[in-house]
């Protein structure tokens, strides 16, 4: 394990590691839920502090009325199903619990039944809340910037990629830190595309990615929001890749070369990738990873942090040349920072 952290820290100091943030990052500091409320999609990182906490204290249940923890995917599906009166089949008498709802299908139902505007309003109301950044977000913002051993200008500052809708990553930075935000807007017309919000400026459409000549990661960190984002200001380009139709359109789009600026695509293809808080239930992310098409000639080792991977997880990540590290996110980040600051 020590060799692993040495390798990752070497990559961080050189500016050659791209963290990928999944849904599990937002859950890493939450108290453990009652057993029948645990999210099936991503059971890792529920309890960073171990199992010493008395069972009677583990009674956290997510509700839309609190502003401390954002919902998991399963909780969001349950919430939207209730709001839209989604027809739920009764559980099988022989089953111990009802199968988890499919978030994309529930969202599709709500958008068709009540209109996409109503669906977006309900999502905005949840993700506009001032949820506090987690220990993982805080750890990532404490990485050395600029990278002290960067060899190229675009390695000086990191790229953070995320499939989450919230703005926790950007808000975890100090207010004075300038950031480049690149986000996907699924509701843009005639079809979804990526936008770029430079610091202090209005968002700009990335209409010709191959011709979008901008020095990403040269002067400041960049955050790439692959599935859309909440917009606290104007909401003009707020959007969420969440319904079945969204995913069909998004995943059936043209090659990534025609969606993302080459500077960002090169970052994703030619550096170490560190996957934090992902589950194989995130099938849409699996498709994106295949579309990334990392060349064996330039590809660097990548890692996925999972507390309890199963055989399917291991096979999938192995096929994509990603090594699994079996730790909770909190323990992993603590060990990583310990190695980093010892240098």
Task: Supply the key terms.
11 helices, nine-stranded mixed β-sheet, globular, 343 residues, alpha/beta, single chain, two-stranded antiparallel sheet
| Unreliable stretches covering 5 or more consecutive residues | 35-56
Alpha-carbon distance between the two ends? 17 Å
Give the helix tally.
11
Strand order of the largest sheet: 5-4-3-6-2-1-9-10-11
Approximately how much helix is present in the residues?
25-40%
Strand content: 5-15%
Tell me the major beta sheet: 9 strands, mixed
Number of strands: 11
What Rg is obtained from the alpha carbons, in whole angstroms?
A: 20 Å
Order of helices and strands: HEHHHHEHEEEEEEHHEHEHEH
Total individual domains: 1
Structural class call reads: alpha/beta
* Global geometry: globular
Mean pLDDT: 86
Concise account of the structure shown:
The protein is of the alpha/beta class. The protein is 31% helix and 13% strand.
Question: Helices and strands in order, then pairings?
Answer:
Blueprint: H1 2-13, E1 17-21, H2 73-83, H3 103-114, H4 116-127, H5 135-141, E2 159-162, H6 168-172, E3 180-185, E4 193-197, E5 204-205, E6 222-225, E7 228-229, E8 239-240, H7 244-251, H8 262-269, E9 272-276, H9 283-292, E10 302-305, H10 311-319, E11 322-325, H11 329-342
Parallel strand pairs: 1-2, 1-9, 2-6, 3-6, 9-10, 10-11
Antiparallel strand pairs: 3-4, 4-5, 7-8
């Amino acid at each position: 394990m020590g060799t692993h952290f040495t390798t990752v820290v070497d990559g961080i100091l050189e500016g050659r590691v791209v963290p990928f943030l999944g849904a599990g990052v937002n859950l890493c500091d939450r108290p453990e839920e009652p057993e029948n409320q645990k999210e099936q999609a991503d059971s890792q990182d529920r309890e960073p502090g171990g199992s010493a906490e008395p069972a009677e204290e583990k009674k956290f249940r997510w509700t839309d009325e609190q502003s401390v923890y954002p919902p998991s995917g399963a909780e969001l599906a349950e919430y939207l199903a209730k709001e839209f009166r989604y027809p739920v089949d009764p559980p099988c008498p022989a089953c111990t619990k009802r199968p988890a709802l499919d978030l994309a299908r529930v969202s599709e139902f709500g958008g068709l039944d009540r209109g996409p505007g109503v669906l977006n309003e309900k999502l905005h109301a949840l993700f506009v809340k001032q949820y506090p950044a987690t220990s993982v977000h805080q750890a990532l913002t404490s990485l050395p910037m600029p990278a002290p051993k960067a060899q190229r200008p675009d390695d000086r500052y990191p790229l953070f990629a995320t499939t989450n809708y919230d703005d926790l990553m950007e808000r975890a930075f100090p207010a004075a830190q300038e950031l480049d935000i690149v986000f996907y807007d699924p509701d843009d017309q005639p079809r979804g595309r990526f936008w770029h919000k430079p610091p202090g400026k209005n968002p700009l459409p990335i209409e010709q990615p191959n011709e979008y000549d901008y020095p990403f990661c040269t002067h400041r960190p960049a955050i790439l929001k692959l599935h859309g984002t909440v917009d606290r200001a104007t909401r003009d380009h707020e959007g969420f890749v969440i319904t079945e139709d969204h995913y069909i359109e998004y995943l059936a789009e043209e090659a990534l070369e025609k969606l993302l600026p080459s500077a960002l695509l090169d970052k994703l293809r030619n550096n170490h990738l560190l996957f934090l808080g992902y589950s194989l239930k995130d099938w849409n992310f699996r498709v994106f990873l295949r579309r990334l098409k990392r060349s064996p000639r330039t590809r660097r080792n990548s890692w996925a942090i999972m507390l309890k991977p199963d055989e399917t997880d291991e096979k999938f990540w192995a096929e994509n040349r990603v090594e699994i590290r079996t730790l909770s996110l909190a323990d992993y980040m603590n060990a990583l920072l310990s190695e980093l600051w010892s240098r």
